[in-house]
Write a structure and sequence with these properties.
With 232 residues, the chain is α/β, with parallel strands linked by helices. It has a single domain, classed as Rossmann fold. It is built from 8 helices and 10 strands. Helix 6 links the parallel strand 7 and strand 8. It is globular and about 45 Å long. The relative contact order is 0.18.
Length: 232
C-alpha cells in the first residue's frame, strides 16, 4: 500500500531523514520505534506532505504522492493524527468532526463515527479545549477516521493520556482493522502499546530504518539493548 524509497527531508535546510526506505502492506500495522530526535515525527510529517521531500519517492497504492499537497494526500486516503492531537480547541466536538469530513468531501453524518466512538456522543457540544487528554485523543482519531482513510499515520497517540484510554484505543484499533480494513503506520515510545498493535516494528536511527523486528521480539530490555548497540 505504501512504498517509501530513499526519502530525505528536514527543517530549514537541516537534514533529518537521510535516505529512509520502508514499505507497508495493506491491512498491516507497522510500528516505528526510536529515541527522540531520530526522525519519527519528521517521517510522518513528510509522508502527509506538511514537510517537503528533498529527494526520494513516496508511492501510495502504486501512485506517486511525492509532490502532492497535504489535502490531496488526504483525499487519496492518507489519514494523519499528529503528535499533540491537532484538534481545534475552540470548536465543539461536533464541529471538529464536521470540519474534517467537509475537508475531504465526505458526508458530515456523524452517526457512523459516533457508533465507533460512543464516548464522544455526550461531548458533541463541548469545545475541544474542555476535553481531557484522553478524550482529545479519541476526537483526533475520530476526525481522521471520519475521512475514511485507507491508511492512518499515528504519531505518539498515548502521550499524556490515562491508561484506561490507552487500552480503549488498542481495542478500538483492533476492531476497526477488521471492520474498516484499516492499515496503520504508528510512531510510539510506549513499548506495550506498540507490541499490542504492531505486526512488525522498524527501528529508526538518525533518519534511516536500521532494522526490523517482530513485535513479539521487543521488550524494554531488548529495545534498550538494540538502541545501545546502535549508538555504540
Amino acid at each position: 500500500m505504501l512504498d517509501v524509497a530513499d526519502l530525505r527531508s528536514g527543517y530549514d535546510g537541516i537534514p533529518v531523514l537521510a535516505g529512509l526506505s520502508l514499505s507497508v502492506r495493506e491491512l498491516e500495522f507497522v510500528g516505528i520505534l526510536g529515541h527522540n530526535g531520530m526522525g519519527k515525527t519528521t517521517l510522518l510529517r513528510t509522508l502527509i506532505g506538511i514537510l517537503p521531500t528533498t529527494s526520494g519517492e513516496i508511492r501510495f497504492q502504486g501512485a506517486s504522492m511525492t509532490r502532492l499537497p497535504s489535502h490531496a494526500r488526504a483525499r487519496r486516503g492518507i489519514g494523519y493524527v499528529p503528535q499533540g492531537r491537532g484538534i481545534f480547541p475552540g470548536l465543539t466536538v461536533r464541529d471538529n468532526l464536521r470540519f474534517a469530513a467537509f475537508a475531504v468531501g465526505r458526508s458530515d453524518d456523524l452517526e457512523p463515527i459516533l457508533a465507533e466512538f460512543p464516548r464522544l456522543g455526550p461531548l458533541l457540544d463541548r469545545p475541544g479545549a474542555a476535553l481531557s487528554g484522553g478524550e482529545q485523543q479519541l476526537l483526533a482519531l475520530a476526525r481522521a477516521l471520519i475521512q475514511e482513510p485507507k491508511i492512518v499515520l499515528l504519531d505518539e497517540p498515548t502521550e499524556g493520556i490515562q491508561p484506561s484510554i490507552v487500552e480503549e484505543i488498542i481495542d478500538l484499533l483492533k476492531l476497526l482493522r477488521g471492520r474498516r480494513g484499516l492499515t496503520i503506520l504508528l510512531v510510539e515510545q510506549n513499548i506495550d502499546f506498540i507490541k499490542a498493535l504492531s505486526d512488525r516494528v522498524l527501528l529508526i536511527q538518525k533518519g534511516v530504518i536500521l532494522r526490523e523486528l517482530a513485535a513479539g521480539d521487543i521488550s524494554d530490555a531488548a529495545a534498550l539493548g538494540d538502541f545501545g548497540a546502535i549508538e555504540s
